[in-house]
Amino acid sequence: MPIFSNPAERARAQSRVLIESLPYLRAYHGQTVVIKYGGHAMTEEGLKLAFARNISLLKLVGIHPVVVHGGGPQINEMLGRLAIKSEFRQGHRVTDQATMDVVEMVLVGSVNKSVVNLINKTGARAVGLSGKDGMLLEAEKLSMTVNRGQDMPPEIIDLGSVGRVKRVNAQLLRSLIQDDFIPVIAPVGVDGEGCTYNINADSVAGAVAGALKARRLLMLTDVAGILDREGSLVEHANADDIFRMKNDGTLTGGMIPKVDCCLAALEAGVEKVTIVDGRVENCVLLELLTDQGIGTQLEK
Known about the structure:
Elements: H1 7-28, E1 32-37, H2 45-60, E2 64-69, H3 72-81, E3 88-89, E4 92-93, H4 97-121, E5 126-130, E6 137-141, E7 144-146, E8 155-157, E9 163-168, H5 170-178, E10 182-186, E11 188-190, E12 196-198, H6 201-212, E13 216-221, E14 236-237, H7 239-247, H8 255-267, E15 272-277, H9 283-289, E16 296-298
Parallel strand pairs: 1-2, 1-13, 2-10, 5-10, 13-15, 14-16
Antiparallel strand pairs: 3-4, 6-9, 7-8, 11-12, 15-16
């Protein structure tokens, strides 16, 4: 925090911040903003409280936040306590029935209610949902193949109860938003036969933002954003830039599916998507309501 020599200097600095936010408050008033909440922002107490306050403030000034949360560390902890081994293939958790039971218990029964409770304590009205509520997230089993090289058939990977979003019940979310609630969504979906699926939270956030035609999608991560090959932040990128960075090896690991979700959201009608460093306190407000913003902004 800056050190001010006197109260008048502090007041002037604070007033400049408020004035700077005015055009953004006007631009986003009445608009929907989807925030994918995960990483350190979900585990450090100070960041958790700051996030809840950010979401409440957005609602107070007439912006409509929708939160989609992850919970990987919490799932890992519970699986460890129950001595259930967990395996990952291509960045996805292989989810047998025992693992699915734990995933649903942790995401829906624990993490979701904790996020809802914290937002409500800051003065807003949040309501927790899983994809099963009102068929919010209609899912289907995720099929995955891996290329094994020339003259070799692709390997078919069975991830168990891992799914992808087939359809989002946007009307349910719009009804909650219209009644001044903040939807907080756990990434668990269901198919027409009632089978439950574990879905990547980034994918859910992108699908929800696209279904709602959200003005903005913020993806909170544990990195500053997309980094170039020298380790510097890429502040702006489009689909062509992403294609190039994939081919030259700039994008690797978990950042590839994350940017794919971002590009899919843009194609579905989201105006801007930003990959934001969730380790920065008040990152949501800094990105939405200041001139500089933080992270990497993706645009069509």
